[in-house]
Write the structure tokens for this entry.
Amino acid sequence: MNSPLADALRPKIIEEVAGQQHILSKGKILRKIIDSGNIPNLIFYGPSGVGKTTVANIIAASSGKKLCYLNATTASTADIKEIVNQIGTIDTANGILLYLDEIQYFNKKQQQILLSYIENGDITLIASTTENPFFYVYNAILSRSTVFEFKPLKKEDIISVIERAVVKVGEQKGTQIQISKEAIKKIAVASNGDVRRSLNMLELCIVTAETGDSIKVEDQQVEQILGSNGVRYDRDGDQHYDIISAYQKSMRGSDPDAAIYYLGRLLAAGDLPSACRRLLVCANEDVGLAYPQIIPIVKAAVDTAQAVGLPEARLPLANAVILVATAPKSNSAHDAINAAMADIERGLGREIPRHLQNKHFDGEDAEVKGQNYLYPHSYPMHYVNQQYLPDDIKHKKYYVFGDNKIERQTKEYWDKIKGE
């Protein structure tokens, strides 16, 4: 194999792209954009190996524009200017399509240099990032771009890719490649939703396989190559979700030993995203107002874990998980927002009370003229009784104080102020 298997098998048309049917299947927005040939500025975000670069290459090939590529981890301001200097040349008569990989690593100044050329259409930008672009991409570029999320591939999608790769490599080598369905499944699961990683592992299996009349990949050989990745099989099917469920329920149930154990299971499987996400959810859903200071503490621990990566990420996460498990619990905010959202879905409370609206002029048909808003800071203890909810739900009670120390103290304070 002269080039890596993942590159040799890179799809050339959208129909060959594995997964991402939520944005690439017929009738979906990104597919419509690609089929139209009228390409706007795009931002693709999602984990590595899920098709962001592949889709960008397919778009570029069909756009008629000159494709330029930059990786923000290594590109400099001079590299940007070199591309800008090509504007208006014969090679760029149809415009420039710039594929900018890992845009989150460009600083604000570098992103601003691109902005004016994106605005006037000299450069069409397709940027990719493994981070949430709403946190890492300059707002002015975001507002001029359409954002699409790429998701980890499902096990079935990766199995299909591996099976096609086995056939393709066999044709290239002029021989049959024998590999069991169970081995293919293990490679797919161990790839953790990353198709590039699955093909790299398959390639290693083929290279190290015994050869004869055919190339035979033994199950034991696959196990050896996957090595420590064997624990990633926990990400397969229901067991993966059972571990995540047990992880959060152990924190909610105030069992630090069980919570730490299930955290370990997730980290051993390399599933840092699920460990972080569930921890953040639990801090807000299950601890909540019983210890509101825990929320920024847990967020800081998650940020640290993501910054240092595995294996060191286990340390800040262990601190945070034990803190959440041993903290007092309250789901009062969780119940309050769910009740409010239920009324919103039923269409209740559409009309905002006049004195809360952001307008200061009444038409001739207004029965009551004037804003008539009472400014709480003008009253004793910074409180005055007035209606805030819409008329049809003005007597609703969404939030009920919890029975923990902090919420009891807060309730006592407001009962005194409001004279209840």
